[in-house]
Design goal:
Length: about 325
Amino acid sequence: MGITRFRAGSPSGAKGNQASDITRVERKCFGYTPLSDTQSKEPGLSALTKLFVVLLVVCSLLLTAALVVFVNQRDSFVVALNSADARITQLRREKTDAQAEVTQAKQFANQSAAAASKSVTDAQKKIDELTAAARTLDVENNKLSARVAVLDASVTDLTNAMKLSQAALGDLQKRYDAIMAEADKIRTGNVELAGANTDLQKRLDVLERERRLLVEQTTQLKKENDMARRVLAERNIPLEAGPSKKVAAPNLTGVVTLVKPTTDGVTYASISLGSADKVEKGMQFYVINQTTMEFLGKITIDAVEPRESFGRLEGPRIQDVQKDCQVQTQL
């Protein structure tokens, strides 16, 4: 970049002063030393030139990629070209056949025209008749076209109705499957409820028998108490209440007759001892393995029958309690 300054004087002196002025301005404005006459005076690449070079490289890469894609797709192009050639050949053959048919038709028309020239009047009449018939056919054709349009509309309506029916059928099938699945769940629940109901009914029967037995025992105890009171009253013996003594549980031994686990995690068991053996509600029996004499658990009696008792099974190894395991009130 240079700055031209004009001074008066000789041309050579002006040029020298001009060069020195330019050098001083460049040093002051741009902060660099200009190239000397002995150094290279070729201009450097500008930013625009560099941009053009980069664009040229990118275009070359894109052209190369396009060429690779074209080479890769050449086979498909060749197949398409062969198919097009075959189609063109077929069309040309069909054209030739059509031209032959047209020629034959022209020959036939010429022959017909030659024959018809003999009787122009009859031919004209025939043409008029054919024209009238053509008009009639046109009318019929229009009617048929209208009927075809109506039938097409009907077919469209039927198709839409069929689609709606299929959709409704699909929905009904889904609802049926859901209902069947719910019915299966209900059946399973009914089976479980039936089993639970049976167990509860058995327990209810046992409790009912126990209640009746307790009612009978209570009635009998009331009768005995009333009798004892009358006897004491007749003999003038005062009724004194003394401290009750806890009666120790009798030493009873039996076996397990039934083990019944339930879905709620509680295991029940029946033993071979009942009220005839002085078994009472709330008594506890220890379950022993007869072979190893190991403690398996204990049974708390909930219901008592004359020859059998029923209660909850608890302990560290209740899963090992089986039928015929020994039970006893004392270890």
